[in-house]
User: What shape does this take?
Amino acid sequence: MTSVDTRSVPELLELPTEHGVLRYRDTGEGPPLLMLHGSGPGVTGWRNFSGNVPTFARHYRTLVLEFPGFGVSDDFGAAHPMMSAQLAVTAFLDGLGLESVRIIGNSMGGFVATEFALAAPQRVDRLVTIGGIGTNIFSPQPGEGIIRLSEFVENPTRDSLVAWLRSMVYDQALLTEELIEQRWEQATEPGVLENSRRMYGRAALARMAEAARAADVTPGWANLRRISVPTLITWGRDDRVSPVDMSLIAMRTLPHGEVHIFPNCGHWVMIEQKQAWEATVSAFLTR
Assistant: This one.
């Protein structure tokens, strides 16, 4: 484990597994806290959570896992990146010998964490999602941000990347040239771009829509009532990727769930409402 130092980036560590090498950052001491990043072009776990790690590492062994296929960990080669991510969580905890953890999951990471809590509730002490749970009720599906994302992976230009990034945030000033350049460089790597297409290309979205209409498939949100662990759902009121009405079914059906909605905030709650979000999550984790 590395000590907390807000001035430097913790070392990127490697964990060999039967599926491939997982890479992660390990900061702080205390009960283990696993942070799972979202999807999208150029995303990494560290880009999602680097600003939050110093806060949580004061009290927890904070583990930021890099999912397979996003350009940092090895690509596990599963048919869909979500399947690789689910394999990665179990392989990661087993590889580090961790029986149970607290989990924070952002967007796709929230869906992955939710599935893990359903499959292995004894391994999850508490669950926090940033979006990443529920289903659209009043808003169109897919949301604007998913449409912009699909446009980028089908036609990966800098302009289409910026259009997608603009849909991610309430405060447009967050989209600096440095951030755009970082995302562009990684998003256009051939393996990373192909991984994004498997999730958000036109064909992938069509398969998702067909699966949602299938009468013999139980939608994921219908299983939320079976999640037994204490769960905090956090959301940006102005999220244009995963609209806030997605939280309503989860709010009503989670046996031990609660919802906190942050104003003037898009999809990146942990970045746009950093201090308020950290305070809310810290109180929940230590309650």
Notes: The first strand starts at residue 13 and ends at 16. The domain at 12-138+219-286 is CATH 3.40.50.1820 (Rossmann fold). Residues 81-96 form the longest helix (16 residues). Residues 1-7 have pLDDT under 50 and may be disordered.
